[in-house]
Amino acid sequence: MSDAPVLEVNGLTKHFPVRKGVILAKVVGHVRAVDDVSFELRRGETLALVGESGCGKSTTGRLVLGLMPATGGSVRFKGEEMAGRSKQELRRLRRHMQIIFQDPYASLNPRMTVGEILAEPMEVHGIGTPQERQARVGELLGVVGLLPEHARRYPHQFSGGQRQRIGIARALAVNPDMIVCDEPVSALDVSIQAQVVNLLHDLQRRFGLSYLFIAHDLAVVKHIADRVAVMYLGKLVEIADKRTLYARPKHPYTQALLSAIPTPDPAVKRERIILQGDVPSPLNPPAGCRFNTRCQYATDRCRSEEPKLRDAGEGQRVACHHFETVPAQGAIQGVGAMGGKFNERLAAFEAAKARRAGG
Fold first, then answer.
1. Global confidence as pTM
2. CA angle 315, 299, 317 (to 5 degrees)
3. What is the mean pLDDT of each run of 10 residues along the chain (359 residues)?
4. Does the domain formed by 235-358 have CATH 3.30.565.10?
5. I need a labelling partner for 120 at 20 to 30 A (CA). Which of 77, 150, 267, 315 fits?
């Protein structure tokens, strides 16, 4: 795997205006869907973007592809800035970046045969002659585990798993470098999910693909991701390689997400962290840390000062004022019982930091 980034995202922001009035002319607020998000994706790597529904994962994926204009920030693909490009220039770049959608049926044109669906992106980008495109369709179907004769069928004649394989084949048709996988297995049965995840992994090794894998199922992410970025209410709260994040999550929100993963062994007992309250509205996010309204460790500083992503060692970065003193996930025995102990640990940590600064 090369260390050169295929994708560089810096300060990516998307605010949707909320309009009111007879002719919807007055802007009364903004939905802060994505707010100052930064990450990079290396060649041949899978970066998983995870979080609760509505946290801005899919919007981030569409902004990366240029499917909607960003309010601010920078997206660089293979060293080229995406912002300000003409439609022709964006089309040239999009040949090298594709997307697999969540709903395999809604993303396929029911009036077109599978062969026509797979040949269309090649025709749009001027790849090959009609005969070469037809041969390529048969090759793509074989790559994703389907038969050449399936090219004559329509999407409704396939199962959900087969339709998602067709969506994957369509993404591969133009030989991309990067694919945004927007929850590609969430609409499938569990047994089919495993097949599709294994297929994506095999294709990545075969073609050297980079994946931005958007998901909310951390059990699926554990099998395919190299690194994991956790989003909450439009902000990145933690990013680390997979082994580090699953073994030592630092942010309280990440700890809560991981505690919700079902364990297949009934003998293994794990304390579930129950978050209190609902996710705040992105129209009016809380001041300070956006997670402070649901965090048992929140202090006055958390409610007034927004935390930045800070280095936590071994490539792990965490947006939390107190991640050094937040108990490790395995040490949390009960949500209610830890509040007092955490305050004691925080006070001791702040005192030690003050002594180091003074000395």
1. 0.87
2. 5
3. 82 93 81 96 96 92 93 94 87 92 90 96 93 95 95 95 95 96 88 90 94 91 94 96 94 92 72 82 93 93 95 94 82 40 56 65
4. no
5. 77
